[in-house]
């Protein structure tokens, strides 16, 4: 089947086909092992989870199962394009690959000659999680001394909060969710975003009678699977955690013997929590006292409780504090001691993969400025703080991300991209909101069309993603673009350049003390799960004294993505508490902005990926904001009405969905929809802010106060 405008269905499975083994490349902690039917004419057919992979267990999300629809989409970019009209006008001229690469390189050379090397800002993120295709752009950055990239937008508050507590990003084997007596799914809509969490949680329920607790800000699909569903007000998770620990001390659920050996100051914590009663937390969280008491009793009397801590509840301005508080509950209860017990957020630190050559770390100059990816709007509109009080950004190469759609303060972002003195090259698979604002657009391969290596966050395997099918002849990989630009920019002789993807994979594996590419080709994955004693911290936590930190050092503690000294501490770090506590640095609703808005993920999109596929769009319908019936009645809003949402950053129009799935005073906009899918061509991130989460940065995209009214147009 050819790549034609009539093609938007999966390739049929023919009798003569073989199975290709790979890994899902998308920004999801599950990193599912995949089996893909490959037809004799070189196409992909059915995509499914690998049954012999112990974590994937044959189950993948529906959007990835439909991957052929994305690969053979009629709107997939197929040719390099040069802008032929005004920015964003949508007029393009086809050009050759050589011309496109020459124009990009020449624009970079001119920008450097005029404003120095820091005028060029390579910008990327997690559109693919493959190490070679995602991170090779860093090697070009360091070789050319282009502006640095502080990758803050997704993980920073969560990673910071967890490592403040434990000293490292690891935890109990995720398979233990299938061998526990209680799973607490905290701040992640796993049914929509991490389906394998539910696979293992439901296994424990069926085989052991385990209870499933879900904590989130609305009645989402994961909530509907819960035995105990706790809907908290956005940004109040730390209050719930503190009340649970208060009850644990009060009712003798706290494991004092465990804490005496493994925690830094249990006596100080107990004294601090004296006033953090269920009544105190109920007033903050919106839960009833009975709900808080029931939750505390369940986890307090269930030794084998597995706290699966997600990212969603940390995307608040107090998000790092909330993560630290939630992890502390497992320590007060001594849950870490038991199989099926403890707290897990990410296994990122267990893999020990050496990417120094891949990313060109030896060429990194610490004096080069670091710009926060979340503040791209501010940086491109000349904000001195965002630019670190240095010169403008006048040229960009963008891979694996779509900032005009996904970045906070969208109006600033679009204003920045509209600058006539800014040259932008976008390497993409579809004509995204960002690609539409580019000067040069070049078509990118998809994961089955190139080689790469992946490591999970939510499980414990390194997985190979070998090239399974040939890409269209006019489409190129990320690595190809970086290598070709290196030649044109005079750095192809620098360390790390000149290798194919397969060669670079082998070099990373060798430097990491791991088996080679051929081993992975045969065995498909490699298990890096540490021993039980290390995973459960029975040999001590990863602080110098081996103690879990109830009293974190918010300003000195190392973290996986701490900003460099030149950037320093971020956000209202002086307000961070000595012990776990509710910190009122969120955007609290006020008379002018009486609603709290969270921009939660949808089931059929993954950030802005899959928003282009026909089935995903049909299943999602159109952009909506979820409104409680009481709020809708008070504002004379009916289901389907066009409404306006706004705050100091801007305003948008969107359709109303009236539902009891949200509490009064809370609004949920699931997405992420393309800007152009909205009524006025402006998406939900018009309303989100780019001010950083304390202490090490991050975007608080679920933390927004807004006004709501019926549209009168």
From TrEMBL:
Residues 17-75 form the 4Fe-4S Mo/W bis-MGD-type domain. The keyword Protease does not apply. Keywords: Iron, Iron-sulfur, Metal-binding, Molybdenum, Oxidoreductase. GO terms for molecular function: iron-sulfur cluster binding; metal ion binding; molybdopterin cofactor binding; oxidoreductase activity. The keyword Oxidoreductase applies. This is Molybdopterin oxidoreductase family protein. Belongs to the prokaryotic molybdopterin-containing oxidoreductase family. PANTHER family: OXIDOREDUCTASE YYAE-RELATED (PTHR43742:SF6), TRIMETHYLAMINE-N-OXIDE REDUCTASE (PTHR43742). Its cofactor is Mo-bis(molybdopterin guanine dinucleotide). InterPro entries: Asp_de-COase-like_dom_sf, MoPterin_dinucl-bd_dom, Mopterin_OxRdtase, Mopterin_OxRdtase_4Fe-4S_dom, Mopterin_OxRdtase_prok_CS, Prok_Mopterin_Oxidored, YoaE_C.
